[in-house]
Amino acid sequence: MILCCGESLIDMLPRESTGGEPAFAPVPGGAVFNTAIALGRLGAPSGYFGGISTDLFGRMLARALSDSGVDFTLCPRPGRPTTLAFVTLTDGQAQYAFYDENTAGRMLTEADLPALDDRVEALFFGGISLVAEPGADSLAALCAQAGDRPVMIDPNIRPDFITDPASYRARLAAMLDRADIVKVSDEDMAWLGTTPAELIAGGVTLVLETRGAEGVLAVTKAGEALVPARAAKVVDTVGAGDTFNAGLLAGLWRAGLLSRAALREATLEALEPAVALGAAAAAITVSRAGANPPWEDEL
Question: Which keywords does the record carry (predicted)?
């Protein structure tokens, strides 16, 4: 399986009650959780690892994973609360207020980490789960145990959520040093003070620089290629990047390129279909409300 490691949470999405009052609807989400869901819906062998509470919201998360064919048998199930993210939308762009103290995901420890056996063929990390300790340190330790499995990281940096920038930078730098695939936005690179070329020079095999409506720039040692975005009527952008990550990984898996050796030897031409699948899947997600990735037959 492709094991997606990191946060699951409940997105509290803005709605209006029948009486015309502002309200919020609970919807399963979280960047890494969304990627696992999208992978499962695209027919790839998807796994999820993170702390899933036994509370009401945790049961919602477990049900959503099961419904999309995601293996979550490696997850610890503590009684701590589930992380909540209250979402507001401005011109379709999502902004978040997180409630994450003492939660099932944040309090993940190294004792909770799974043994990486033959079922796990690749790992994905990202999102806010890489920010807050002790969970972030535990995930970094799991990344260090990846062995010869390919690792993808999407830092998806949210500056307002970071309380200890120095610690976060050091943790992320160590994980990026181990990464084979990295997806970054302009905002991510500005905060990190890096470029795709510098990431490649540091040992990353494939960098995906997202450029919004322009598409995605795929960068390797051999050069770069711009894969155009798919036209879509945008309802909101919740889960779009997460769906792209899943499409990319699913495309690499389908093409037999999801190994460190295959990635290093692949040409840009061989990698482009996977990038295009990510773009196509993301275009469907932005066309509907919330993080609702497409199923394989929708593509």
Answer: ATP-binding, Kinase, Nucleotide-binding, Transferase
